């Protein structure tokens, strides 16, 4: 039985039809980022359908409650503008849920009409709908530009714009982790604490989208970066933005508007990217890295050396978000694996260039496409197969059809759990990535080996 | 169990007041009309509930949009049609395989359900219009797959910029000649919920597809099954039972359906409506145009399944069929009874709440009552008044601006194909014997007096209800799942069944009994507090022995 039976092997260029996208729309990214603010209710300014879809998708991935309100446009609002709906929404939200922060993002609809969030915010303040002491964060997130990653970035930038520099440095370092799992955000905090640097991490969904089950529902869980911390971002000694696509805009804004110097780094997946993160972190903060960090690093190197024979020369196809893919491709190359197909739905020629650069001089040729889709990637695989797939749950159809193991990594993962609890960033996360990849490759070997070659010792 | 039951008896009126207390006055007034303390029995005139009205901005709703109802619900399970979402990528992405519609591609093997097709509109398409891109996308789909049909779905921005998707489709259909291409103006801002989308979908399927296939399918006792979407394999189980009874299912709208099935629907002799909310319009139109009568059935619950089968038997009034139906029921019921006996000690006397989209909040109460469980509160996400109060209130429904912008299509008797399946006398004889055509009772009638019926429940009210009434199980959708479970109350998804199913028919009932038993008996709900949290005060010092 073949699930994607209509996918032809022959690749024909398509100009208009997207099939099996490797991206989704901006607002969901903004919603996810907003959940990383303490006491925040995300609000989707548009028709209620988008909000329902975004909440469902996030819930399915994180297996956690995702509260978000909507302006619930009907035809009238679509014609006359959504200001009345949003003002009414703010009023209701404050009476019923009383959040500290409302983080509003737009949708296709409100963007197309041209609703201006800043003007609506001012009106909300003037009419007393937004009580004093409450914070309004607004981000435009038109879905016909970029992808969910862009939306995430736009909301993170809106968060940075809350900064109120006092002119006195507070000795902290801003770290913008990008769209990673709550567990990854936790790991970044742990690593920074080990290095001995006081950081402000934003957004921070650790403790929000991996909260405990206690018999009590907290609409606003304990985690998240506070508004006070965000205001303090302008007094930091520096900003590390992890990921050009997810985090750089916010960091550059803080740099140019608040004079907080920034460094844009890759997301710390794998050995080298984590090395750079730790190295820059200690330089910015002016501390020396303790032995405990080097110890963890050594463990990762140890596992690479122990299991190198199984990684060596293995061909991999990957799809997902640009920042994550860049670090992953680098990591795979460092293991002597061969990331031969790389697809992201998020547009950007820069991405293709970066992946090409990473693969330069390697003993394989990489096919890379920004603004690609999984249909195309599947066709490539049909023409010349790979040993491993790395990407989100939607890859399970290709995995089954082509009988190739799939490492579920990225967004969304709808059919497995653990990503919200176990990090894949940093050295510890690297160990986990290796463990998962090895498990897949060796399970495969155990299944495929002929009886005569089936071995106990591997 | 660590959870303590409420000892205080709350009056339903107190509960209603509690639910409304926090709202601003205007919101409270509106919600008051959507929350009703049930008093309905057949003799009493039930009070009116406000339904199918706009969602209140800012109030966290369970609802989705018109597009979701059209593309997701109705057209989602149509396996051999290429469904293209015209719009930016999100809407198409989120409706990609997320409803757990199962399908059997059959011998022809055509199945596009695992694919997501979109025009992925970019800013230049929004500015300059997306018609060209849409035409190109349809062409590319045709060239790649040569499907029998291509359907196009409009999302919000498409309606706003005014792309004429119908004209594009018409042009492409004429160009291809052997591929039916048509479109749905199902922009999310139209209507107030998914319900408008069901209506739009059904109208177009009826106008562009039903009746296309002139060859009558083979088989006896031909029915259409309307409003069954094969979530978690429900449709498979119903088909198994129908087949066993010798009943021919010409077409299911739209679970596990195919293009040919829709195209042949006019050949059935009876329409059986499962989810009346999503599809009663089609039943009406099939009757007007082709003369096929319709009845309401319910295959959720073993008793309801048996009842529905008997109702079909009675309609065809053929001893051979009636005997076979009885034989099938007699054969299937012992397993059901055995499963029931097994779970009853764990489920009897327990309570449930059900807030799901359409008729599931109603149908599933049958299964719960088979397990001895009482429904304390229920309601729909996108119902109209008749779903609560019964079909007879339809003439009294107010047509507001939001309903008016959903196209009503005029249907007339087909000059050639109209063929009343029963004479007026036959119909009358059946009706005199208590047989009900074109009828459903609504949720209120089924529920006990003093239970609380709530339309368009929102997250805040859900939380309050659970806090006040502590049900043993709460049924809703994925968005509600984890906030309910955080309170220590098990939550069962009834839109997409979590990972379970089928729950329809006899085998489905058995599955559901076991599933609910698992949920209400799970040990996990006793782990909420750590030992040191149960008695945090230190009352003495520990003495080492
Ligand atoms: S693409 Fe636009 S309309 Fe569709 S879900 Fe995303 S924001 Fe909403
Ligand atoms: S409300 Fe509009 S934009 Fe949003 S999901 Fe529905 S159709 Fe798409």
From TrEMBL, chain A:
Its job: This molybdenum-iron protein is part of the nitrogenase complex that catalyzes the key enzymatic reactions in nitrogen fixation.
Can you tell me which family this protein belongs to? Belongs to the NifD/NifK/NifE/NifN family.
Q: Which reaction does it catalyse?
A: N2 + 8 reduced [2Fe-2S]-[ferredoxin] + 16 ATP + 16 H2O = H2 + 8 oxidized [2Fe-2S]-[ferredoxin] + 2 NH4(+) + 16 ADP + 16 phosphate + 6 H(+)
Q: What class of enzyme is it?
A: oxidoreductase
Q: Does the keyword tRNA-binding apply?
A: no
Could you tell me which Pfam families the record lists for this protein? Oxidored_nitro
Its needed co-factors are: [8Fe-7S] cluster
Species classification: Bacteria, Pseudomonadati, Thermodesulfobacteriota, Desulfovibrionia, Desulfovibrionales
Annotated Nitrogenase/oxidoreductase component domain ranges read 25-441
The EC number of this protein is 1.18.6.1
Key words of the record: ATP-binding, Iron, Iron-sulfur, Metal-binding, Nitrogen fixation, Nucleotide-binding, Oxidoreductase
| InterPro entries in the cross-refs | ChlB/BchB/BchZ, Nase/OxRdtase_comp1, Nase_comp1_CS, Nase_Mo-Fe_CF_bsu
Q: Gene of origin?
A: nifK
Name under which the protein is recorded: Nitrogenase molybdenum-iron protein beta chain
Superkingdom assignment: Bacteria
Leader sequence segment: none
Q: How is the cofactor bound?
A: Binds 1 [8Fe-7S] cluster per heterodimer.
TrEMBL record, chain B:
Q: Which domain of life is it from?
A: Bacteria
| Cofactor section | [7Fe-Mo-9S-C-homocitryl] cluster; [8Fe-7S] cluster
**Does the record bear Metal-binding in its keywords?**
yes
Q: What class of enzyme is it?
A: oxidoreductase
Which residue numbers delimit the Nitrogenase/oxidoreductase component domain? 65-519
Catalytic activity reads:
N2 + 8 reduced [2Fe-2S]-[ferredoxin] + 16 ATP + 16 H2O = H2 + 8 oxidized [2Fe-2S]-[ferredoxin] + 2 NH4(+) + 16 ADP + 16 phosphate + 6 H(+)
EC numbers, comma separated? 1.18.6.1
**KW Signal (keyword) present:** no
Checking Pfam families in the record gives: Oxidored_nitro
Q: Which UniProt keywords apply?
A: ATP-binding, Iron, Iron-sulfur, Metal-binding, Molybdenum, Nitrogen fixation, Nucleotide-binding, Oxidoreductase
What the entry lists under NCBIfam families is as follows: N2-ase-Ialpha (TIGR01862), nifD (TIGR01282)
Q: Which family does it belong to?
A: Belongs to the NifD/NifK/NifE/NifN family.
The job of this chain, per UniProt, is described as: This molybdenum-iron protein is part of the nitrogenase complex that catalyzes the key enzymatic reactions in nitrogen fixation.
Q: Subunit notes for this chain?
A: Tetramer of two alpha and two beta chains. Forms complex with the iron protein (nitrogenase component 2).
What name goes with this protein? Nitrogenase protein alpha chain
Species assigned in the record: Pseudodesulfovibrio portus
